[in-house]
Design goal:
four-stranded antiparallel beta sheet; Arc Repressor Mutant, subunit A; alpha+beta; 11 strands; Jelly Rolls; 10 helices
Length: 229
């Protein structure tokens, strides 16, 4: 029991200090955590699928979560990796429609889950909490703006550099294959392989099977923003 209590306390501490919930009023923060459930997901386990029925929100405590999405007529593709402190899933709460994202644990992952019925109870007691939940939606919009901005870069090397730098928001070890990096950067596997060799020669990254370790995220950021040539 003490291990469980310690894990719960550590999880709450992480979410109190990082991301959307850390910016909210203390009373709201306490109520979200009081009503939330700590869950564990094994590697490659899906937290929820694109098109799933209505549900609540999930806050990443530890691990890595792949975020996949697409227009409703297409198959979801990898667009981002969640970082500790990030929350998602408020679409069901706000518009009462099925899931528009797919979340998948890449490694052993712990999340805090606030069920939809608990969000509804909080809203019934105080309708102003809708603003608090909407602030998380705007955080997600900020991430999407960054993704679109990265994809508008004409040079594939700079798109690849920007994707790798963005992935360091969660960890300096990027748990992606070259094919997955290519999907996120709109680049071919051959282009990714060539770029990684150049980045490694510059001392910015090292590569191993199934992962890339970023050694100099700032250099990738500068290169991706065309500040160095």
């Amino acid at each position: 029991m003490s291990v469980t209590l310690n894990k719960r306390a550590n999880a709450e501490a992480i979410l109190r200090q990082n991301g959307w919930l850390s910016t909210q009023p203390e009373a709201f923060r306490n109520e979200v955590l009081r009503r939330s459930i700590l869950l564990r997901f094994a590697p490659d386990e899906v937290i929820y699928h694109f098109g799933d029925d209505l549900g609540g929100i999930y806050g990443l405590v530890s691990g890595v979560v792949a975020v996949n999405t697409a227009p409703q007529s297409d198959a979801p593709q990898l667009v981002h990796m969640g970082v500790p402190g990030s929350w998602t899933g408020e679409d069901s709460y706000l518009i009462r429609q099925p899931r528009r994202l797919e979340l998948r644990a890449v490694v052993e992952t712990w999340v805090m889950h606030l069920p939809l019925d608990q969000m509804a109870q909080m809203t019934a007691a105080d309708p102003t909490v809708i603003r608090n939940f909407c602030q998380n939606l705007l955080s997600g919009v900020g991430v999407l703006i960054r993704i679109v901005h990265d994809l508008q870069k004409q040079d594939p090397d700079r798109r690849i550099a920007s994707v790798l730098q963005r992935m360091t928001w969660s960890s300096h070890q990027v748990l992606l294959t070259q094919t997955e990096v290519g999907t996120m950067a709109s680049a071919s596997r051959r282009q990714v392989n060539a770029a990684l060799k150049r980045f490694a020669a510059n001392g910015w990254v090292t590569t191993s099977y199934g992962s890339i370790t970023v050694l100099n995220a700032e250099a990738l950021r500068l290169f991706g923003n065309e500040d160095v040539r």
